[in-house]
Amino acid sequence: MPAKADKHRQGQGGPSGGRAGLPRVSRAASKKRDDDVSTEAGDVAGAGAGGKALIKPPDQLELTEAELKEEITRILKADNPHAPQNIVRYSFKERAYKRISHVNQMAIHFSYDGNLIPKDSDEGRRQCMKSTTGAEKAPDETSAETSEETQVKGEESTGDTQAAGEETAEESGTAEVAAAAGDEETPPPKKPEKKLVNQFNFTERASMTLNNPLREKACQSEPIAWKDFSATVNQWEIYDAYVEHIQKMEKEKEKEKSKPQAIKKEEEKKKERKFTSLEFQSNEIAKISKAAKIMERMVNRNTLDDIIQDFKYFEDESDEYRDQKGTLLPLWTFQYDKTKRLAVTAISWSPKYKDLFAVGYGSYDFMKQSQGMLLLYTLKNPSFPEYIFSSESGVMCLDFHNDYSYLIAVGFYDGNVAIYNLKATSQPSYKSCAKSGKHTEPVWQVKWQKNDIDNNLNFFSVSSDGRIVSWTLLQNELVHTDVIKLSVEGTTAQRPEELQLKILGCGTSFDFHKKIDYLFLVGTEEGKIYKCSKRHSSQFLDVFEAHHMTVDSVSWNPYHSKVFISCSSDWTVKIWDHTIKTPMFVYDLNSGVGDVAWAPYSSTVFAAVTTDCKAHVFDLSINKYEALCTQVVVTKKKNKITHVEFNPVHPVIVVGDQRGHVICLKLSPNLRKMPKAKKGQEVEKDPEVEIAKLEKLLNLVREPAKQRCEQGGAAAPPGPPAEQTQL
Length: 727
What we know:
Layout: H1 2-12, H2 21-50, H3 65-69, E1 88-91, E2 96-99, H4 122-167, H5 169-185, H6 235-258, H7 261-303, H8 305-313, E3 328-334, E4 343-349, E5 356-362, E6 372-378, E7 387-391, E8 395-400, E9 407-412, E10 417-421, E11 430-431, E12 443-449, E13 458-463, E14 467-473, E15 478-485, E16 487-494, E17 500-504, E18 507-512, E19 519-524, E20 528-533, E21 542-545, E22 551-556, E23 563-568, E24 572-577, E25 585-588, E26 593-598, E27 605-610, E28 614-619, E29 629-632, E30 641-646, E31 652-657, E32 662-667, H9 687-712, E33 723-726
Parallel strand pairs: 25-33
Antiparallel strand pairs: 1-2, 3-32, 4-5, 5-6, 6-7, 8-9, 9-10, 10-11, 12-13, 13-14, 14-15, 16-17, 18-19, 19-20, 20-21, 22-23, 23-24, 24-25, 26-27, 27-28, 28-29, 30-31, 31-32
């Protein structure tokens, strides 16, 4: 019966009865949705009335009201997290694989290949013709089909209604009501829709540039023709060749004389123009170079700002917990490409510009001697030297003039000495030669002295040939004067002719007294230290049996007039009183000591460097037995530290090694302690305070040392030192 009723409804639908099912389905779906909503509301109401509780999953979080109200923001980015970041493509231009910086972040979630055809193509025109003809035929066919369907469905509906009336009247009544409702709900007949045709004319084109093929071109020159020539030369042929040469020279002179004066004047003007153009170019280059130096310093200050801040303001606070020990903070490393294979042989700070220092480069390997260099660096520009001077022989020592800071005295490995003027050209202003009395061995140290009686500049030099020479700067030349010739006592060589020859000692270092101008010390290769005077050139004032090997450095204390320090390759550093022949303090550093230097701010602080790449800093007023700081400052692979020097103002030291590097290190607060001020008193900074501080230490060991000297006698070897420590 329900099936018949449905057929009856379809029959009542008319020609569009085939489409009457669509709204019926939508209405049933909406009705079902309303029922679901009502059941949910009923459940909620029943739960409130009947006491039913909502069931929560066991893993659900219970949040408070504050947590529920909290807003959580999330940032969505367009970047694809799964996009590869290491795509490499081959670059034909650079002939290498290069990494792609820009990666495609688009992710395709759906793609479909369409069947769109351009209108202008042949296939597109055919489909357009078919679509237009099909649209004209469609109305006639649809009208005929609908008429046939209405007739068939009318007959079926009448048969069904009669059978239904015979069985029961109630069912027929319901069928009529349903048919009436169907008539109301059936939509009007729709017109057939036209098929959509491709409205876009899209063409995809791609092209790829061709890479030009590489071509190689080579050529081979013809071999040079060889000819053998041989001849015998006698005196007559040589004489004839000289005569021909002289005749050619005379002919050229005659041609020049025959030239008119106008041509000569033009040639002279051309030469003058060339000179003026060169001078103008040099002036322009000088202006640009000055501006370039300023810009270079500004750039370096920006790039090395962290190191500059450490140099100015950093103080190691951990020194408070180190029990009076200290450290060295590395700041800058000065290096130049052309000095990589040269060793640092000398370092000296400028007396006028406290940030400027000179470095000499040479070689201590006497089998591998090459050229030398003199460079001047500044702390304001660590990347490149301010001045560059090259020499044929290695630079072994140098010294700034105290009054004229632009003059630098330099000693070379070949025995020459020279004066460089920073205001002049790159060539030395003065240089010795064989005629002017140069040394025959390497010059190990040079020192400027006060002007002589005629107010001429002069300096001293010491060499391995045993001569200590005074050099005076005259107007155009260097004049030398031999001050002392070092001779080894008790060593004479006897010849068969019964001639006795004295063997000269080898001077390696010397230093002049800070207050007594004529007094100076000389260290030798035999390990002895001679106390000499300019006034007595024939003999020494005193001899110290200082070391067992070469004395590498000797230096007077800048405050105390009686104290000097020495170091040697026999691993020891010794502090002396020149009135006593035995050392006051002896320190064994377990390696050859290359250099030692007093600190300019204290009479009890000194630094030493050893061949095992370590720097040692001592302060006798704090600890007279061991160093306050022992630190490796350069790499140990085939390297040695050669020299050390304190800055006269700033709390830094510079250290040079065998590979041409100069390292600047800052002293921590424990290594430069100043005397503390008492309440209501100011700290005294006079030199007398430093003298008294060192004198107090010397008094502890001076009396035992004098007693040993008196017991042993002057000629006896010195006994064990009063204070000796081994690190």
